[in-house]
Amino acid sequence: MYTRRKFLQQSATLGFVVCWDAAFGRFELVDTHFHYQSEFLKATLNGNRPEFLFLSTDSLGKGALENSPLMAGQKSGGQYTSKATKRKIGYYYNRPPKKKPDWEITFNRKGFLIHSRYSEHGSDLSPFVLNFSQQKNHSTVLGLMAEKNYVAFPCVLHMPGMGTFEITCSKPEQKLYYDAGRNVDEPFVRIEFAAATKDHPEITYELASKLIYPENDYIQNDPAFDGFRRNFINIFQLNPTIRALANNSASDACAFTVYKYAELARYAPRLTANFTAMDLVRQTLDRYMTGMLAYGQVGYGTWKSKFDALDSMPSLLMAACYYIKETEDKAWGHRNHGTLMEWAQKIMANDTDNDGIISYGYSGNSDSWKNFGELTRPSNWWDTIGFGHDDAYANALAYRACTLLLDVNRLLEVADDGEVGAFTNKLKQNYVSRFLNKETGVIAGWRSKDGNLHDYYFLFVNSVAICYGLIERPLAIQIMTILLKKMKEVGFTDFRLGLPGNLIPIRREDYVHFEKRWGYGELEDGSDGFQIYENGGATACYSYFTIQALCMVGMVDEAKKILFPMLESFRFNQFEGNCPGSDKTRDWKTWNGECWGYEGFLVDSYLTFLALSNSELVK
Predict the structure, then answer these.
(1) DSSP of 41-70
(2) Which of 7, 38, 284, 566 is 20 to 30 A from 256 in CA distance terms?
(3) How far apart are CA 561 and CA 567, in angstroms?
(4) Whether pLDDT at 258 is above 90
């Protein structure tokens, strides 16, 4: 047993300066550097200047403190003399000597305080800096941003797989500088705590460890849910340069993912006393409403298609409707109702045949994609597969978006000319006949302009259609039964990996990105690209919908068989980061676990946590 006495004896032998407090943690001085550790926090401070050399947290308080995501050299600037006192380290600016430290760090079991003092006898102080390496952890700051790179207090620093700090400031008008970079040698996230000034001669920042998740008596003491408790807010990654939620803090925003943030935000507890996850959704929507473009929209740099993705407008409209319904922010709803109706009109305008089915501008015909440029993209999120013309997934989102808008119109008491209601009725009336493949008994991915169905046993297409109310229960039971049987037949059984989007290979003629690295197969049947990336690769993305659809048709045990192995992977952060010895990342894998991802952290994966809002799954 590693006792306090044994620790003190060993430390004295090694020449450590030691402080120990059972309620506080362990503090020591080694080779001029200051070390602190509790079950929630482990830190090393440079003895020569105010910067962390090591910083790790475990918001569960279980002592998982091996990983420090900091980059070398925090660049806080200046040379300091320093001294250590119990629970504090005082940093003294070295010209001229002062009685009080310029920077003072105070630790407690669950966090620390950063205190800055201004002195007219010294030059201006550089900020206290934390630089996080995204290769080690996809850290993000979550908060309200009125301007690029500056976050209002209080805010949240979230370190996926590790923990969360709520950050407060003694001067609420102060802002936290926040930046992130992707196209650099080492992708980073950077935050800066401004030093005290003549106008603000003393400033204190507090970082307090916390867990943010919907509490449930069934999961509180069960380690199987540790990943859920640490990582519930993983889906929220705020890009500081565009002030919007994105794939991760240094990656693209995607218009067609915004609805997922809103789906989870409906169940998220407050992030701080001052703001919620829904505030992040509203802030993101405000950026789109004022002209911001994102991947999936014409005019965005890497979206080379002539048409918006069919799921972009439905996604934005769904998110806006969820925000209004959940917050009952009628003022925001009335102020932006014109935009919501514009988005609905854009959705309905894609019903070019007046049959309730929206269509993409590209035909989706087999072998048609070779006629376009490499970055011409199909009609939805699954952007390497040839979804085109009548897209079953995008139509399911269109239906959901417009039915939600009808709810919002009633909530806002806005007159409705009946156009949206007529559209949703027609869409539902024609959906099954347009997309059901009678040969397989499941919903196909798309019907191309030449009338052919393209059916690869898409789990996500069928599940989304069931979850959003387009499939009546008898047919839904039939579909989920067939898909489970097919999954077993093709040999996918390791649900720790998530789920494949499709259960059989995408044929070469229906693939869009002509590189094997992205799942393209040189063979006609596409089998040599199968299980790579979106061509049947396993991922946590969209798994929620299959789990939820199974619950909706009464197959709760089958849903649990998928969910609980995934929870094991979430517990050990197996859907993020690089695979050892590989430049590929864990967000996509073959069925034997070989990595084929590239984002490193893909927020869509964490929509899976929404499944735990279903009480049937956790009893």
Answers:
(1) EEEEE-SSSS-EEEEEE-TTSS-------B
(2) 566
(3) 11
(4) yes
